[in-house]
Amino acid sequence: MQVKELMKQPYIVDKDISLFDAAKLMSEKEIGSLLFVQKGRALGIITESDLLKNFGKQAKISSITSKNIISISPEETIDGALKIMKDNKIKRLPVVDSKKNLIGIVSMTDIAANSDKLEGDFFFN
Questions:
Q1: Closest CA to 38 of 101, 106, 99
Q2: Ranges of each domain in the chain
């Protein structure tokens, strides 16, 4: 199975929204991450974990987002996505096209929710 079969639309926000607003949005939408994008390219990602680490700070998300974004091609296999996640100790991968434009996001939760459709014991490799 390829990443493009499981990827979802990412939630894109302005880099200047507050941590409070980011947390509120993530809670309302029941999502685990937000991305900010410029000219189609993901420049930062903020996760639930980032918010927890910075709880109570009066800051904009741009001050705490992960800027060294690890991404994946939609053509990559789910096994490839899992290896990248494991090797980098991350739970989400922005999906980018050949021009590095953001087109989706895939998470460990998405993969686990579809584990019955995947071949092999992917959690036990």
A1: 101
A2: 3-118
Helix ranges restricted to H, the chain: 19-29, 48-53, 78-88, 108-113
Strands (E), 1-125: 33-38, 41-47, 92-96, 102-107
Are 16 and 34 spatial neighbours (Cβ–Cβ below 8 Å)? no
Contacts of range 85-90, beta carbons closer than 8 Å, 24 or more positions apart: none
* pTM, 2 dp: 0.85
- Please tell me the CATH superfamily of domain 3-118, with its number: CBS-domain (3.10.580.10)
Half-sphere exposure of 61 (CA within 13 A, CB side): 32
77-114 pLDDT per residue, tens? 999 999 999 999 999 999 999 999 999 999 999 898 88
